[in-house]
Protein: DUF2267 domain-containing protein
Organism: Actinoplanes awajinensis subsp. mycoplanecinus
Amino acid sequence: MDQDDLLGRIQTTARLHGRNESRRVTATVLGVMRDLLPASAYRRLTGPLPADLRLPPPEPGRIVEIIDCRRFLTRVADRLYADDAAFLTRVVLAELNAGARGTTPSDLAHLVPSDLRPLFRSRPEQPWQALPAPSAQTFRRSGTEGPSS
């Protein structure tokens, strides 16, 4: 996965100030996921990512902590010192789902508690596009045609 492309999409979608902030948000979300996922699943997820976004994998055989959605988002908020952790997490997971080669967060959704699955399966929003304006047509009212002969 191209790091500049991923960080650029996260920066644009999350309305962040620069690539360093995008990198910090992405690494934080991946770091909280590291606490939640088994070591082998985390390695598959972060394998194609650039090295500076990957944290060292957790030790194999460790006990995986089961946390719910609220606790997951609280950890992200505490590490980022940000109030909009749910939005930032959704943006990172959606962009990882959209552009990742190999294993995506969506593929690992079955490994997390049920209230986190919609977040792990999120996709980027489609940009809004207006429908083309209908062509100008003139209509006649019925019964207002000219005199009959």
Observations:
- Helices lie at 3-14, 19-36, 39-46, 69-80, 85-99, 117-120.
- Residues 94 and 124 are 5 Å apart (CA to CA).
- Residues 19-36 form the longest helix (18 residues).
- Residues 3-120 form a domain with the Globin-like fold (CATH 1.10.490.110).
